[in-house]
Each structure stands twice: as structure tokens, then as C-alpha cells.
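Subject: for your reference before the review

Hello V.,

The reviewers asked for a structural picture of the protein, and I figured it would be easier to keep everything in one thread rather than splitting it across files. Below is the amino acid sequence we used in the manuscript, unchanged from the supplementary table.
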Amino acid sequence: MGAGPTRTPRLSCSCPESAATTQRRTRVALDTGVPVGFVVLTCDTLEQARDRAGPPSSTEDSGREATFAVLETANVLRELRHG
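And here is what came back from the structure prediction:
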């Protein structure tokens, strides 16, 4: 998941809206005990966005990667809670 170099840019700046969104997602996860996933595609063109979205011709699928990360986190938390 996300291990190799990509052909599209990655978010390289920080902004107050991003920090606030992260804080809200963290709060929801802490309050509910449910992992929360979030993906932002940072693309310069529609072609890059489509490539990152995981069509059959693409080597990337950011949504799928985020889904697996949330499921893996949920499984780890379940193991930690129930042994």
C-alpha cells in the first residue's frame, strides 16, 4: 500500500482546514472507538485523478488502500481489546 513512487504529486503543504479535519476525524474515532479513514487526492489534472482512483489500467487505487488501512486498524484494535 502506497510503498512505491507515484506519477502524481502528494500534498506537501499544511493548512488550517486540513488540521481541523484531522482533529475532527480523530475525535470521532476516539469517541466511537471506530477507525476513520480519509483520503485526499492531490492532482494537477483529471488524468492524474483518474489514475490515482484505481481504474484497471492504473497501478494505484487510493480509496482501496485507505479501506484496507481502516480494516487493518479495526482488526488490530479488536485484537488489543479482546486478546
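For the response letter, the relevant points are probably these. The longest helix spans residues 62-82. The mean pLDDT is 77.

Happy to draft the paragraph if you're swamped.

O.
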